[in-house]
Amino acid sequence: MTLLSLAQANLIADKALEKAESLGFQPQTVAVLDAGGHIKVIKRSDGASLLRPEIAFGKAWGVLGMGFGGRDLAKRAEQAPAFFTALNAISNGRMVPVAGGVLIKDAQNEIIGSVGISGDTSDNDEVCAVAGVIAAGLVPDTGA
User: Fold this and answer.
1) In angstroms, rounded to a whole number, what is the distance separating the alpha carbons of residues 87 and 34?
2) How many CB atoms neighbour CB 13 within 10 A?
3) Which residues contact 4 (CB under 8 A, 6 or more apart)?
4) Residue 5: φ, ψ to 5°
5) Burial of residue 97 (number of CB atoms within 10 Å: 0-12, 13-18, 19+)
6) What Rg value do the Cα atoms of the chain yield, rounded?
7) Closest among 118, 113, 100 to 45, alpha carbons compared
8) Which of these, 134, 143, 139, 128, lies nearest to 17 by C-alpha position?
9) 28 and 45 in contact (C-beta within 8 Å)?
10) Per-residue CA distances from 130 to 13, 22, 90, 92, 105 (Å)
11) DSSP the chain
12) Residue 140 CB: number of other CB atoms within 10 A?
């Protein structure tokens, strides 16, 4: 299994933040986790609001925990709200089932981590996450 390096995690976060800035999005916060759910990197744009790190982490942690991207997670949460309420309870509120949580896969399609971004709309957050993962030469899985 490929491991997500600190250099890759930094590149993902940096390129995601650059993408947000280039598109004129609101200030972003990026959380990159390894396959075990451990934080590799959290970075905040200047002006990002107070709860953004927790939201970004929740997006990344939720997709990693369930094994599918944020778009699929959001659809499933909509279809089974009681189940996702239970999941959020047993995960101590760490799941944020919306777009903007993206699995990071290697060339062999193995999950090696995840990225979550918060600051703008969930759709815009996802655009930035995908750009960061691609810039690192890895494969994004949004669950679309």
Assistant:
1) 21
2) 27
3) 32, 34, 35, 40, 104, 112, 113
4) -85, 160
5) buried
6) 14
7) 118
8) 128
9) yes
10) 10, 14, 28, 27, 11
11) -PPPPHHHHHHHHHHHHHHHHHTTPPP-EEEEEETTS-EEEEEE-TT--TTHHHHHHHHHHHHHHHTS-HHHHHHHHHH-HHHHHHHHHHTTT----STTEEEEE-TTS-EEEEEEEESS-HHHHHHHHHHHHHHTT-EEE---
12) 21
The tokens for 2 are 């490929």
Amino acid at 58: G
What is the per-residue pLDDT for 68?
92
- What is the amino acid identity at position 14? D
- Between 1 and 86, the higher pLDDT residue: 86
End-to-end CA distance of the chain: 24
Which tens digit of pLDDT belongs to each residue from 84-126?
Answer: 899 889 988 888 889 999 999 999 999 999 999 999 999 999 9
29 with 100: CB under 8 angstroms?
no
Q: Residues 81, 103, 101, 118: what is their CA dihedral angle, to the nearest 10 degrees?
A: 160
